[in-house]
Amino acid sequence: MIIYFLRHANAGKPLANLKKDEKRALDKEGIEQCGIVGRALAALDVQVDAMISSPLKRAAQTASLVGNELSYEGKLELEDALRPGASFADFRRLLEKYSKFEAVMVVGHNPSLSEFLGRSISETGCEAGTELKKGAVAKVEMERNSALLHWCLTPKVLRSLYAAAAESSRPKTSRK
Amino acid sequence: MVRTSLDNSAYYINREASWLAFNRRVLEEAQDENNPVLERLKFLAITASNLDEFFEVRVAGLVQQIEDGYTEAGPDGLTLLQERDVVSRETHGFVDEQYLCWNEKLRPMLAENGIRVLGLHELDAKARVFIADFCERELDLLLTPVTVDPAHPFPRVINKALCVAFLLRRRRRSSMTYTGVVTVPRALPRLIRLPSEGTDDFIFLADLVAYHASRMYHGYDIVSSAAFRVTRNSNLYLAEEESRNLLESVRTELHNRRKGDAVRLEIESEADPEIIERLRTNFELESWQVFSVNGPVNLSRLFNIYEQTEHPELKFKPFLPRELRLTAKSQDLFEELRRHDVLLHHPFDSYDAVVSFIEAAAEDPRVLSMKQTLYRTSEHSLIVPALISAASKKEVTAVVELKARFDEASNIRWARDLEDAGVQVFHGLVGLKTHCKLSLLVRHDPDGVMRRYAHLGTGNYNTTTARIYTDVSLLTADPEITGAVHDVFSFLTAYAEHPSYGPLMVAPLNLAEHTLALIAREAEHARHGRPAHIIAKMNALLDKNIIMALYRASQEGVKIDLIVRGMCALRPGVRGVSDHIRVRSIVGRFLEHSRIFFFANGGHEEVYLGSADWMPRNLYERVEVNFPVKDELLRERVRHEILESYLADNVKSRFLQKDGSYIRAWRAQGKRKPPTGAAAFSSQDFLIGLAEGKQAPEAIPVAPNPRSGRTAMGKER
After folding, report:
1. Which of B159, B250, B284 sits opposite A43 (nearest CB)?
2. At CA B576, angle to CA B572 and CA B578, rounded to 5?
3. What mean pLDDT do residues B441-464 have?
4. What are chain B's domains?
5. Could you tell me the CATH number of the domain that includes residue A113?
6. Segment B355-402, tens digit of pLDDT
7. How far is CA B146 from CA B165, B513, B551, B678, in A?
8. Is the residue at A63 inside a domain?
9. Chain A within 8 Å of B421 (Cβ-Cβ)?
10. A8 located within any domain
11. pLDDT in tens, B168-209
12. Residue A158, Cα to own-chain centre: how many angstroms?
């Protein structure tokens, strides 16, 4: 099973009122980041069978924008195990639930998402030092007893990668 | 005798035009006041999803070929550009009719029956509270408003996804307008049910998104908004190889993604022209590819209303399929099959018999091995679980076709489940889709003999569609047939070619050749004054070689009755070419799917059934099997019960005219009004009655003949 860990994109400053903070939306930069990340991932041929997100608005928005760019046609799954306060045990149960899929993308928040990523790839049970920037995405291949981090990319890296590729690509053929 | 050359484009009907004429017949069912209103709605939804597929596959292919500079004309002589013009003209006219049917007919009729689809302005106070809450609670979370300006690329719009476009103006700098786009998440139903008493009320999700949008675009004024939907090329282009590095894969993918080019934009007709133009340019569409529609952008979603409302009085009456009964002497189905073959006509005969054939084999310790082809199987199919449970106890082989269009993903899932369970899974032969419907098992019978049993069919192993498609099944223990089925499996799994598959006809090996020979043999019989008659029922007839053979047979005086549900490139009634050919199409409650081929053969009648239509792709690009019905009683049943009913139909039957149009059977007979009462004969209704024991085969009336002076009936009799 391949898991893409994606942290939600920019969504401005946290709000003191927790209820309101749940509804905090992506800001302009965040929406743009999602477009870049989504297009670059699509260009990397990233395909997911399930798109799973924290139910918080900024995460769900990130998931749906990136999902669109990946041409993901399924429905967006919202899971409490990706909420900010969820535990690693919750996350393991979530993976169990989606284990029949070949590749999934999970969209969540720091610090838990970085923690999940770190603990997923460290065999000893202690946490590997990883940090997902906003909009960053990591590809992890999970097997029964091991997990391998393939790559971890930030929106900045993806942007330049995409620009380099798009530039040298041939123009569209014989269009009208 | 001077023969007219049959290689004349005037003798062939354009394929796309013929397909569109088929969808028009489905629309007729939506317009038909004799159908219950919710069924009419369902027919309308079907025309819409049919048309989606037509654009995704056929139009996409056509546009691609034009771009690639192909100029070749088809058998009908139209160049690709002319064909595109035909498609453009026909589809625009068709879409207008669809919306006319919805707005003028179905929507008001549903409202009369207490099923209302409301607009925002029609909501009462209670419904308004409901939608305000719904937007806040469910919708808001899932919507992401995107603004497009030159600095920001247009977000990717998914194939057939509902979107809403906005024309926005900044409150502060009002000189510039922006485009806003919101993709409506698939997680939500397209029609939202409203709280109501005594009526079933719905509202379109798109209306709610437009309503809620003003709260999402802070700092902007919404000048106008419109729901739209983009259809993309959905032909599958496989990535042949894993690429070696990041950049390379980025590049290939950029290239590949073009293949998902947009082919159609549907947008609400009251949309601001500015929005339409911006979208059209963005999706690189020509103006003919833009369809402005007077109503909801996705009529196929109206099917939700059918599903979400009870109202049995507004739907077809359910019917009881006839269950297979074993004769008293037989202990089980296998013993029955040792005595005689069994023929089933679905959905009138229950499909349970086929499922229990496979289930019984899975459980029966005497059954040593099972082989099965799977093309489109359903989510709730009982066949895959049976194979999975059998795999631990016996040798199980499945040939799974991964490339069944639009089912690719689900087929991959089944294939994996089967493999995990220990089933030997094969994916058929490279470049050839496995379309034949075969199931074979080897059993160590109580009398100590090893025997093969087989099921051969015209339809997929799919319990859902088996209830709505008409298909024929043959269950047999005939060693000749089962032996040949075994050889076909060897061909599929090991590419082991046998010199002969007799008595089966197998594509791409010999099916076309044998079919041509059967038609030629009929012509020979006619020439010598022996009985000659061809009745062929199929989904589509496009193969030029076969059409020419039919023309030749007609010229010899063979009477030819074709029952072609969908596309037909053969032009009937052309003097000196096809005078003796009649083409009917039956479109009704069940999707006609069985392929049946009858040959009078000078008095030694032959009947074949199978998976192959007379289309080039079936004859040359797929593995297909057509098989004979050897049992005389079963042959009689096919000829005098099944085919005769279809020929006698004067309610749902249409005749193809020389000009390519279709008219109802009763109009072809020169009548002014459709038959009523005892004079009306609907084949599908009759077959239901027969299954329920309310009808007798003797009740089939004489087939109607279209009024045409030149259909000389003397020679072939």
Report:
1. B250
2. 20
3. 94
4. 11-314 (3.30.1840.10), 333-503 (3.30.870.10), 506-699 (3.30.870.10)
5. 3.40.50.1240
6. 999 999 999 999 999 999 988 776 667 888 999 999 999 999 999 887
7. 10, 58, 59, 62
8. yes
9. no
10. yes
11. 988 877 777 888 999 887 778 889 999 988 899 999 999 999
12. 13
Residue A138 is assigned to a structural domain of this protein: no
* Dihedral pair phi/psi, residue B140, rounded to 5°: -55, -45
- DSSP-derived 3-state class of residue B239: coil
Q: What is the DSSP string of B92-133?
A: HHHHHHHHHIIIIIIHHHHHHTTEEEE-GGG--HHHHHHHHH
Q: pLDDT tens digits, residue range A87-111?
A: 999 999 999 999 888 899 999 998 8
Determine the pLDDT at residue A45.
81
Residue-level pLDDT at B713: 39
- Between B405 and B161, residue with greater pLDDT: B161
Write the residue in B185, B246, B257 that is nearest to A64 by C-beta: B185
Q: How many CB pairs under 8 A join A and B?
A: 94
- Taking CB atoms within 8 Å and a gap of at least 24, the contacts of B299-302 are B299/B44, B299/B45, B299/B47, B299/B48, B299/B98, B299/B99, B299/B102, B300/B45, B300/B46, B300/B48, B300/B49, B300/B52, B301/B45, B301/B190, B301/B191, B302/B41, B302/B44, B302/B45, B302/B48, B302/B102, B302/B191
**Quick one: tokens of A174?**
């014989």
pLDDT (0 to 100) of residue B350: 95
Q: Could you tell me the CA-to-CA distances from B474 to A71, B12, B113, B332, B360 in Å, in that order?
A: 42, 34, 44, 17, 17
Q: What is the pLDDT of residue B86?
A: 95
> Using the 8-state DSSP alphabet, how is residue B10 labeled?
G
What DSSP character marks residue B489?
H
Total domains in the fold of chain A? 1
pLDDT band at B243 (very low <50, low <70, confident <90, very high): very low
First to last CA, chain B: 22
| C-alpha to C-alpha distance for A94 and A113, rounded to whole angstroms | 13
At B153, list the tokens.
Answer: 């690329």
Assign B12 to helix, strand or coil.
strand
Q: Is the pLDDT of residue A48 over 70?
A: yes
Residue A155: inside a domain: no
Q: Which two tokens stand for residue B379?
A: 């989510």
B130: which 2 tokens?
């409901």
Q: How far apart are CA A140 and CA B21, in angstroms?
A: 51
Q: Are B537 and B585 in contact (CB under 8 A)?
A: no
Q: How many angstroms separate the CA atoms of B367 and B450, rounded?
A: 9
Residue A148: predicted pLDDT:
83
Q: What is the pLDDT of residues B2-38, one digit of tens each?
A: 566 888 999 999 999 999 999 999 999 999 999 999 9
- What does the mean pLDDT of chain A come to? 85
Q: What is the ipTM for the molecules in this complex? A: 0.71
Residue B498 is a catalytic residue: no
- Decide: helix, strand or coil at residue B340: coil
Helices of type H across B122-226: 125-134, 140-142, 205-213
The rounded distance, in Å, linking the Cα atoms of B277 and B53 is 25
* Chain A CB within 8 Å of residue B678 CB: no
Quick one: pLDDT at residue A169?
44
Residues 6+ away with beta carbon under 8 Å from A151: A138, A139
The pLDDT > 90 percentage for chain B reads 67
The verdict on A35 touching B (C-beta cutoff 8 Å) is yes
From residue B683, alpha-carbon distances to A45, B665, B690 in Å are 51, 12, 10
Residue of B153, B239, B249 with shortest CB distance to A35: B153
Q: Which residue has the tokens 């084949």?
A: B683
Tell me how far CA of residue A167 lies from CA of A125, B150, B365, B534, in angstroms. 43, 18, 64, 61
**pLDDT value of position B296:** 92
Structural domain containing residue A106: 2-12+23-132
Residues of chain A with C-beta less than 8 angstroms from the C-beta of B246: 44, 161
B362: three-class secondary structure by DSSP: helix
